[in-house]
Give the backbone structure.
Amino acid sequence: MSQQFHHIPALLKAEEIVTIEKLIGEASFADGKETASMAAKEVKNNFQLDTASPAYLQVQALITDAIQSSPYFQIAAQPKAVHPFIISKYTAGKYYGWHVDSPIMGKPALRTDLAMTIFLSDPASYEGGELVIQTSAGPVAMKPSKGDAVLYPCQFLHCVNEVKNGERLAAVTWIQSNVQSSEQRQLLFELNQVHAILNQKDRHAPETNLLLQVYSNLFRMWADV
């Protein structure tokens, strides 16, 4: 996977998924075209959880708590603002064709630096339905485990392949980061990982403190707050 993409294993715990599945199972879904931009309406063919449903706010709260308590997500995304999640459903014959996300979304408006898909279905339970991202090196297809997330920069064309059979559920959101540049975010992420290793060995070592100083100063230089 591209170094700008992040596969976050088990972002949702098993018990959280069970609760979400129960809530979704009792809720109503609407045509996904209702939230698509003009260009996306032509290629969007799915369902999404009705935001007027009582279940929607409960699912929203569960997932929000999960991302707020995920060190991986917080370090990789450096979130400044997170768009409310859209809970999407793809049954047989449903898909989302090639598109690029709107640069500004929501009220209040946020800049879409990153997109994230949290997979809510067992990949073995449906055929097709891969998230595919078009990169300079070619398309990258992803279909991870239930509860896993994929975080990626919004500048890429992407699609969801047609589901051939079964049902694909996912939670999708967009993030405005405190660090707008994907390259700078990646450098900060990698520095953080190295610091964590040094910190485990000796948190008071000069090199540990120096790396933390470099990380902090770069973050301060690049922060968009």
Summary: The chain has a mean pLDDT of 94. Helices lie at 14-25, 38-41, 54-68, 71-77, 182-201, 206-222. The two ends are 30 Å apart (CA to CA). The longest strand covers residues 168-177.
